[in-house]
Amino acid sequence: MTLAVNHIKGWRLQALIFSIAAAAAGYIAFALWSGWEEVVAAFLQIGVTGTLLALSLSLLNYGLRFVRWQLYLLRLGHPVDGLPSLRIYLSGFALTTTPGKAGEAFRGVLLKQRGVPYPVTFAALMSERLSDLVAIVLLALVGLVQYPQAWGVVFAGVMGIVVVLACLSSKRLLNRLSHWASTGQCRLMRLLALTCDTLMGARDCHRPGLLTVATLLSVVAWGAEALAFYWLLGWLGMDISLTFAVFVYALSMLAGALSFLPGGLGSAEAVMVSLLVFKGMTMPAAIAATVFIRLATLWFAVAIGLVALICSRHGEPAKEGGR
Questions:
Q1: At 261, is the secondary structure helix, strand, or coil?
Q2: Alpha-carbon dihedral of residues 235, 237, 239, 242, nearest 10 degrees?
Q3: CB 283: neighbour CB atoms within 10 A?
């Protein structure tokens, strides 16, 4: 694994450092702007118990998504043993804050050393992103009636799902494109062939049975974090319904994903704070709730990913051929 870890350099390292530094600066500016003392007081009000509960629900989110990842790899004919696969999966979280989560494709470098071809990793990653998008859109629909002004964002998410599914719908077309691209030698043709192979793999991951299981796992996984957000608002004295809390969290994640900004930084926070203030929350409390839930979800994942990446240096040497 050491050689794979050494690939974290160049633009990947710069993107990681920049995203962490930018987020830290942004959150500090957020807190100073709204009143540092009030934000700190809100954090103290949440307390250790609330923090541990929120982190536990985030861990449930990561665990369920890992189960889904394993199902994708199994379906694609390249299963990987549990612990090594978990370490590799979590390592991808270290690069969650790259634009569009593209850095998570680094898992392909780690899995390649276990005999998993790049198209398989990319197919599983694409299936993950689509499954997450479906789950977030479904959760956003829960409270859309309470804030119909957000229909445009939700509609954009639905259209994204439709476009991807349309690309996966024609097996014959994908086969023809793949065959045609494989006859070329230029870089563009090789990229087209890789894209077709990836889409074919993702198509296999969206058979009815697996699609149903993956969607259920995704909804429960993201619903767990939305539940943590609901409880967090309650600890801060906010009288808000569960459906609207789920809607706020899901819409914020959807806005962040559609922005293609690193980790949705800025866009997700802006939507979340705006909706909480719209619902009657004070600005300092809304900012405290937003910063806390992002630390307990997004940045908790990044921290776990960095630990997993460091631990990979001490992992067993990769065996060609995988399992």
A1: coil
A2: -10
A3: 15
d(CA 40, CA 63): 30
Kindly give, in sequence order, each residue whose CB lies less than 8 Å from that of residue 106, ignoring residues fewer than 6 positions away.
7, 8, 12, 91, 92, 95
Are the C-beta atoms of residues 107 and 91 closer than 8 Å to each other? yes
Quote the CA–CA distance of 207 and 205 in Å, as a whole number. Answer: 6
Q: Which residue type occupies 24?
A: A
The 10s digit of each residue's pLDDT in 17-28 is: 666 666 667 666
Q: Which of 313, 293, 287 is nearest to 36 (CA)?
A: 287
- pTM of the predicted structure, to 2 decimals: 0.86
Please tell me the distance from the alpha carbon of residue 314 to that of residue 288, in angstroms, as a whole number.
Answer: 38
pLDDT digits (tens, 9 = 90+) for 135-176: 999 999 998 988 989 999 999 999 999 988 888 877 777 777
- More confident position, 22 or 72: 72
Read off the tokens for 302: 């990044």
In the structure encoding, which two tokens stand for residue 189, read together? 């043709």
Q: What's the one-letter identity of residue 97?
A: T
CB 200 within 8 A of CB 178: yes
Can you read off the two tokens belonging to residue 188? Answer: 């563009």
Which class for 81: exposed (0-12), middle (13-18), buried (19 or more C-beta within 10 A)? exposed
